[in-house]
Amino acid sequence: MEGQVEKMRHSLSHVLAAAVKELYPTTTFGVGPAIENGFYYDMDFQGEKISDADLKKIEKKMRGIIARGCKMLQREASREEALAWARENGQKYKVELIEELPEGETITFYDLVDPKGEVLFADLCKGPHVEDLKEIGAWQLDKIAGAYWRGDEKREMLTRVYGLAFTTDEELKEYLARQEEARRRDHRKLGKELDLFCFSDLVGAGLPLFTPRGTVLREELSELSLGLRGKAGFKKVWTPHITKVDLYKASGHYAKFGDELFMVHSQVNGEEFALKPMNCPHHAQIFASKPRTYKEMPVRYMEATTDYRDEKTGELGGLSRVRSLTQDDSHVFCRKDQIKQEIQTLVGIVRKLYSTVGMEKLRARLSYRDGSDKYLGDPELWKMAQEQIKEAAVENGLDYFEQEGEAAFYGPKIDFMAEDAIGREHQVATVQLDFVQPERFELEFVNAQGEKERPVMIHHATLGSIERFLSVFIEHTGGRFPLWCAPEQVRILTVSADAEEYARKVEETLAGLELNEPVKHNELRYSLDLSDDSLGKKIKRATEIKIPVVIIVGARDASAETVSLRLRDGEETVKLADLAGFLRGMAEK
User: Fold this and answer.
1) Is 426 a catalytic residue?
2) How many angstroms separate the most distant Cα atoms in the chain?
3) Rounded distance, CA 59 to CA 50, Å?
4) Whole-angstrom Cα distance, residue 108 to residue 309?
5) 512-561: pLDDT as tens digits
6) Catalytic residue among 280, 300, 386, 557
7) Which of 92, 246, 390, 460 falls between 20 and 30 A from 485, CA-CA?
8) 413 given a catalytic annotation
């Protein structure tokens, strides 16, 4: 069925192009593949402006073409015939694609032909397609976006028209409902409504600014990660935000990622520095700063620090892709016989953290090397490490799958994928072995035989980029954060002015209260609303910013020494003397 769905989606991209060709005859065409959930076509409308408002007109034309009972017919052409066709029809993008095809390769076209034999649209294409458009299921056009030709921001900006396509109407409706829910949960929308972060043109694109409320959220999550790793023997380190470019040349990062560096030039002596894009070379220098022996291995470092990458402006989006990213970074330097145990420890940290944040459903991709020569390091060491990774996955009961060719050039890895509340999967934590940096930096320790030996380096991030994780977490929770990390955990509201004295007594009960779960020294964050507004307005304000616990006090509560609690899952009446214990219990859930 999956193959049939792909054929249907790919065929729809041709129907889309045919409809556009009839409506806008001067259009030139790029590429139109099937994609997850649908299809798209990149087109150059030759200066004619179209918008989402034009989609209904295009969709109507498409449905007319399908109703005519058209078929998709394949034919072969020589290179010369294909180029002649593209040039005669003014299809410069197709000319470029054809010229890049290897000499001697069979070139195929698909013609969209109506029952009278008229070719409505011919396209350079390998397929697959449905033979008869009657096989197409439920679909609709979705949106319009811009897309650079070949993904190159120096090339032409084309118009990308997206469509959705599924086997049945029910599947399409379910997808649209999920998309609507995703829009309600959009972290950019909620970030503004909940006053968590903002951007400024004067600061720059991709450089988020966190408000007091947003800063609480990111620091609580960071503390959770640091606390879990601290219990596992990781020690905090600190590294500067700029470094000589020589460090990245020595590590090999400059050769591969040099175009992502923000460069800094010294005005004193002209030395060239870079804002650090990653932390592993720095941590390697700390390890190398003194002699090591096998007895002190493994050495574990952790750091929550901001890195900087010169991402393309067009690829930036909210907190999902930024230029300043804060990583909860960790590096382990261990003996070869310690690899499996260290991986198991890191797997345990990942599972604990994602269970705590309510994203228990994790899958793990075990990424191995393939048979190519692009990988560095001893193949036997790779083999041993890959075996230990798999053993750790099996022994920890991970839901895992293996994928050859997905390893980094310097070592195999485990990538964790977490499912959010509306069924989307996000890549989150990583455990990455590295056989190359210890070699490049000549890291060593003295083994049990008194000989010098290279350590294995293990990179690990539990949250990854805190900014990117926040984009996922905000949408996963819909802004209804667990009590322990909510920016404002409790708000006290008075029914009337005569309850003010008792409200302050409630406040005294909360002052200095530490929840201590799941992070230590989590002093309760609360506020007191004594305004003259009606109780309804006060409740509305607290509800709009999704405060987990709203305490309502009136004269009746004062006389009974109780408080009325409005919670997300209902209402409770609690004795004032029991309030602290009640809140601590909520934090532990």
Assistant:
1) no
2) 94
3) 13
4) 42
5) 899 888 988 889 999 999 999 999 999 999 999 999 999 999 999 999 99
6) 280
7) 460
8) yes
